[in-house]
Amino acid sequence: MHTHHHHARSPHAHSDFNPVVAPATLIPRAIVHTHYNHPEFIFHLNLFIIFVVVIFVLCGLPRFFFRFSHPDEWRNGHFLRSKPVNGEIQLTSPTVLSPSPGSDDENEKYLSPLEPAYFSPTGLPEKQAQMHSPISLDEHFTSAINLYDESDNRVLKDPFSSSLTRNNTTTSTTNLLSRSASTATTASTRISRRREGLPSHMPSFAARIPYATPILRYTLRPGLDVGKALVLICYFSILLYGTFYKSNVFSNAIRTGYLAVSQIPVVVILGTKNNFIGMLLGKGYERLNLYHRYAGLLLVLCCNVHTLGYFYEWALEGTVAENMALPKNARATFGLVCIDMLAFFSTSFWRNRYYNVFLVTHVIAVVGVVSSICMHSSGPGVAPYVYISIGIYAVDRVTRGFRTKYTTARITPIPDMGMTRVEIPSINAGWRAGQHIRLQVLSRGMGTMGWAEVHPFTIASVSQSEDGSGLTLMCKKSGTWTKKLYELAQKPAPISSESAHTRGKGGVLDASPTVKVLVEGPYGGPGHTMFCSFSGAMFVCGGSGITFALSAIQDLVQKDLVGESRLKTIDLVWSIPDPTGLTLEAGRPKLATVLSGVLDRATTLSFQGKGSAGWKKSEGVVVGVCGPLSLADQVRNVVRSVDRKRMKAAGGIEIHEEVFGW
């Protein structure tokens, strides 16, 4: 043991960032290199992290090229836009539940759309249109759902129908598309020629290792499976190595300070809405949010260990007061308070129950942390990481500005479903099925600060729809903001002289109010997964998650009609707690049974021709799930339980998740 005399010094980095640190009294001299270049070591550690990310990107690069080999993938999924449809934009009214014609039983209902109004590109109603195609519901709870009519190759306008029942948990299950071998051989020559250019299918990396997939998909807790946990453990191990390699957190506390600052770009890039890592991996920002939170948690941990190491040494020396009196250390303490406040208000309690508090504290804390770091230290081991982080955030904000549109939307309440239908006729192209947008309603009716809130909603309509209905959202009344939106939709729209003139001409004046909105997106979606390249598809939705399936199925059926889809079978499972919702059977969905049927049809329907040459390999089954975390975990467990040989025969099973909660 040796005793050294220590002068008062900063708890964090010195301005030259090459300090000579000696072990404090009573601290073992355990692997301490006083002249070790910490900034250089941390730099090489970050290079290794980049190398690991590149490995993941390379694994998914084949799917990236396969996806963008199709021209449509360049045009859709990036920026919202308006595309003229037959010279006018049609804004359809919501489908509502009404008593069956000629029936005295109020419980017997059918799906009937209201009369839609046609809107010009300026958004003004021009003429009346009629739509009459209600689908009656039978009393045996059998499905009347049929999106695709193979006989004349047309899409029915009303996609959903079923009977109503009073149950706490209800499920609607149906097969929406089933093309057999005979159908394939009797299709028109035009469609057959088009099917020669079917989209190429590239299975995911996980699907190519079927024996490891069940293990990787094992659910540890809601929202976390073994595969994700391994990524988190790998990242933690790298930082752990960076903390203790030739260093001691008590006698060399500056190492964790360098390490914390170096991870700021990682946290920022995983938290932005637009980042190149997500684009290359085919993952939306919502899927990277788990890693953003985890990286942020480790950053906070490093900051606290960094500070505690210095306090420990000062306490041994008896110089706590002298060191805390230094301006540089006071700024560092302020930054520590900000980052701990950020961590506290970022817990699930605040995110889910008091999102506005979480958001405001997030912004304030981030500004406080970055400013305190810049004032505390600006050496070569800190400044580059701070500047890179600011640059990443600035690029994200600019990109979000380009992806935001200011326009007018019509809002209509749907009492039977407890939803608000938001229709934006001026935007009718630019998104992929399954993507979502971030909506901001600029109206005083949303409350004092409600107009400033931004909320994500899955797009329920298909891009470039032939009816010109534009971008449509179905907003479930579940929180304060959505309740205010629903109440705003119930208010009658003011009658202007122009609209009165339209009524006098015989046009229909819609009483639904219009509001100014900011629409940002599109975001998320299936990424590099192309639903139309699979042989079978199964969509599992919970509650308002049906909007995801609506747009996906409409898009798939349209592609099937023009010979741009390999899908031979599509099944839809909709689980809803609302007794007034659509249902076919009571109880929770029997996902294993439904998935088994999809696998059978995807495999057996691959026979297209005569003799052994007619058999074509199944291109796999995709399972899309949209709903709460518990539903996604249930689907994952069902897929994991499928027999490996059966999974291989079907070409593999891939899962795409759009979950509620984070």
Describe the 3D structure:
The chain is α+β, with helices and mostly antiparallel strands and 662 residues long. The protein folds into 3 domains: 38-61 and 217-402, no CATH class; 84-135 and 404-525, Elongation Factor Tu (Ef-tu), domain 3, CATH 2.40.30; 164-201 and 530-662, Rossmann fold (3-Layer(aba) Sandwich). It is 40% helix and 18% strand. It has 21 helices and 21 strands. Strand 9 and strand 10 (224-225) form a beta hairpin. The protein is globular and about 75 Å long. It starts with 37 loop residues before the first helix and ends with a strand.
Per-chain topology:
Elements: H1 38-67, H2 71-75, E1 89-91, E2 95-99, E3 109-113, E4 117-119, E5 125-128, E6 148-149, E7 154-155, E8 170-178, H3 181-186, H4 189-194, H5 213-216, E9 219-221, E10 224-225, H6 226-244, H7 254-262, H8 264-271, H9 276-281, H10 285-317, H11 320-324, H12 327-344, H13 348-353, H14 355-376, H15 383-402, E11 404-414, E12 419-424, E13 435-441, E14 455-458, E15 471-476, H16 480-490, H17 497-504, E16 514-524, E17 536-542, H18 546-561, E18 569-576, E19 585-586, H19 591-604, E20 621-628, H20 629-640, H21 644-649, E21 653-660
Parallel strand pairs: 17-18, 17-20, 20-21
Antiparallel strand pairs: 1-4, 2-3, 4-5, 6-7, 8-18, 8-19, 9-10, 11-12, 11-16, 12-15, 13-14, 13-16
What is the radius of gyration computed over CA atoms, rounded to a whole number of angstroms?
29 Å
Look at the structure and give the mean pLDDT: 75
Q: If helices are DSSP runs of H or I spanning 4 or more residues, what is the number of helices?
A: 21
How many extended strands? 21
**How many domain units?**
3
Strand content: 15-25%
Overall morphology: globular
Strand arrangement, largest sheet?
Answer: 19-8-18-17-20-21
Intertermini distance: 51 Å
Structural class: alpha+beta
Low-confidence stretches: 1-33, 87-170, 181-195, 497-509, 583-587, 609-614
Largest sheet: 6 strands, mixed
Helix content: 25-40%
GO molecular function, one term: ferric-chelate reductase (NADPH) activity
Transmembrane segments: 41-66, 226-244, 264-282, 294-312, 332-350, 357-378
GO biological process, one term: copper ion import
GO cellular component, one term: plasma membrane
